[in-house]
């Protein structure tokens, strides 16, 4: 049994884990392992937003960002997904990953100007949301081996079975920084306007989660069980966070269907959400009725199928420092992504 925290990031704890040293999880899970030389990763979300049928401008933007991804210093891995937000707009999001900040910086300026630097196109919004956390500030978790997703595609490999999972608090315990830091948020979001562009400067220790499901390997009875008994409960929780998550600390939630190169839906999905803090995410996960129902449905599913389950689950969670964030929006509605955080800050300022 390994620790989820790699040996080169382990340090003397001033903050204790939620479980004793002899804790044995009830089922196996695994984490991504980067080479020790990797000090940070970059997660860059490029979104295009429109209402109704996709316009030629939106289609062109999606083609252009894919072309840019293929250029020199482009990402090691990227994927694309889409969803309809609380205002009825379709959002198509291409998320790209690097593990070399120099390569990303060499690539990003041109991509940024092409994506948000021109004038707003009628009926089409665009946004860029980037985190570049030190490796001590994020964690991953996988239910099975053999098919990495998201940032884990960049990793050198996967761990053996890890100890810090299957209990409330495991998410925090897998983040190396949690050994010594409570990772509490600090500061208030603010806006910098650059012509039509809106730049959001968020706050310290902002939290991002991407949590995914892959049912492409499931067969008839298991697929029916997932789609009939689990996915609707998951969707209910995701819709709650999308529509009503702000009071509990969720700035924005996207429950997205992964699409292939031709834009066709695959049998993969993920929720991606911005949270005021890791603690707010933990509170929702541990006690909110919507997540209690998700957890209950998932546990019933997994306990029924046991090791024969073919459903693949994963997530990545980041708590980013104030200097590790970049958010920029052009022509988007005011509840897009981290624009919501600005609305929250204004509403709570005396």
UniProtKB/TrEMBL annotation:
Residues 1-20 are annotated as: Disordered. Its cofactor is heme b. One of its GO terms (molecular function) is metal ion binding. It comes from Bradyrhizobium pachyrhizi. InterPro entries: OXD. The keyword Metal-binding applies. Pfam families: Dehydratase_hem. The keyword Lyase applies. Belongs to the heme-containing dehydratase family. It comes from the Bacteria. This is Phenylacetaldoxime dehydratase. Keywords: Heme, Iron, Lyase, Metal-binding.
